[in-house]
Specification:
The protein is mainly α. The protein has 27 helices and no strands.
Length: 441
């Protein structure tokens, strides 16, 4: 079966009788190349179940046939940490003349996942290989074996400047896995925030986030960087780390005034992530003379959840803003906050008198998202079912269904819409009635 590459049948036999593994191991010394190759492949497919074959597979690394050697490397990698004693021989293969063997050696060392002097020195050598594939796999493997020794960090930092984006990305990711031990990597990582490839930048943000508070002072200095791409990366990272330093929060807030390449949006998102410590600045933003900054501040507060509680009373002021878009953004924010914003129900109800149908529609949506906590709005919602705009009637029906008050008045009002001239209004009314009935069944 091994000669004919019937690997599936061999694996099936082993599943029924594990002793067959010994037969397969016995074929590793076969003079027939195909049998040797397929035996090695089978043992790799078995993973750590074939740990008893490690010594024999190590001997296969010395085979004169390069493809046999490469397959033995792969199988030892699949066996994982049970193949620890193969590390010495595999590490030597990172200097093999055959590129594919060098690549598989780096991959195998990563899968075995044990940091030894041999594995580290071998993989560091792989970082300087002429092949991009080998450099990439070596960088990834160094992260998998998890050594935080400076001798690993320094070469990885060099690889952050590699000409190939995949190598740069894997080097950055490996520094992330090393984590706080990679403090020395912070300066070159900050430069990598300006990398021309977005995947490298994304990995860099993740790595700086893993390093955490140790990176914050460096990131702060980069907040004034001339490159908007770097600036956005710094702002995003500070937001994910959730810095609480008021001075840094002030500087992020100032970025709401920078009108280029999405910096305002990144700043708002960072302030939202930071949460409660950023709330005072965002409340200040609600009163900004610039409509864009008011809108972004309201959006950020709406995304904070329970941490926005102390700012809800200030948020309400946006419902009376002269700008339609601000009134709508405020309603959306209150809707996202849900039951936390229950004390604003009476303020939202007033928006059913707004001259703009878009605003009235968003008022209904917001009340629906507040659910049962918006019960006092039911009379106003029943009246809104008669709105001249079909979108308002549609969203109002949905809101009544979500609030779930089962009274004759509510059901009767919804029944009146079952024959509305707009199909989607009819469907919404029917769905709301069913929802109310099911909730109270």
């Amino acid at each position: 079966m091994l000669r004919d590459a019937r690997v599936d049948l061999v694996l099936g036999r082993i599943e029924k009788d594990p002793n067959v593994i010994n037969e397969v191991i016995g074929h590793l010394g076969s003079e027939i190349r195909s049998i040797r190759f397929n035996a090695i492949f089978v043992l790799g497919e078995l993973g750590n179940k074939s740990s008893s074959s490690v010594s024999e597979l190590i001997e296969c690394l010395k085979d004169n046939d390069w493809s046999i050697c490469r397959e033995a490397v792969r199988s030892l990698g699949k066996i994982g940490n049970f193949a620890e004693k193969a590390i010495f021989e595999i590490s030597k293969l990172i200097k093999n003349d055959e590129q594919s063997i060098r690549k598989e050696a780096a991959i195998a060392l990563g899968k075995i996942g044990i940091a030894t002097e041999d594995s580290i020195s071998g993989l560091i050598a792989g970082l300087k290989d002429q092949s991009e594939d080998v450099r990439k796999e070596a960088a990834e493997a160094l992260g998998k074996i998890g050594s935080s020794d400076f001798e690993v960090i320094s070469p990885l930092i060099d690889s952050v400047r590699d000409e190939n984006w995949q190598v740069r990305t894997e080097a950055v990711k490996s520094l992330s896995k090393i984590g706080k031990g990679a403090k020395n990597a912070i300066p070159p990582l900050l430069k990598a925030l300006g990398d021309k490839d977005w995947r490298v930048r994304k990995a860099t943000i993740s790595t700086l986030t893993e390093i955490g508070n140790d990176a914050v002072p460096y990131l702060w200095t980069y907040l004034k960087h001339y490159n908007p791409i770097v600036k956005k990366g710094v702002i995003e990272t500070l937001g994910v780390i959730r810095v609480s330093n008021p001075e840094i929060i002030d500087d992020i807030f100032l970025a709401l005034k920078i009108k280029r390449k999405g910096i305002q949006g990144k700043a708002a998102d960072a302030l939202r992530n930071i949460g409660k410590p950023a709330l005072p600045k965002l409340i200040e933003g609600i009163k900004d003379t610039n409509k864009k900054r008011r809108s972004l501040s309201i959006w950020a507060i709406g995304g904070m959840g329970i941490e926005a509680s102390e700012g809800i009373s200030d948020l309400v002021s946006g419902l009376k803003d002269k700008s339609v878009s601000i009134r709508i953004e405020t309603l959306r924010a209150l809707g996202k906050l849900g039951s936390i914003a229950k004390d604003t129900v009476h303020n939202v109800i007033e928006l059913f008198e707004d001259p703009k149908a878009r605003v009235r529609k968003e008022a209904a949506i917001a009340l629906g998202k507040m659910g049962s906590s918006a019960i006092e709005a039911v009379p106003a919602l029943r009246n809104a079912l008669n709105d001249k705009n079909p979108d308002v009637r549609w969203r109002t029906s949905e809101a009544l269904g979500l609030i779930g008050v089962d009274t004759n008045e509510v059901i009767s009002s919804l029944n009146n819409l079952i024959h509305d001239k707009c199909d989607y209004v009819c469907e919404a009314a029917i769905a709301a009635i069913e929802k109310i009935k099911n909730q109270n069944f």
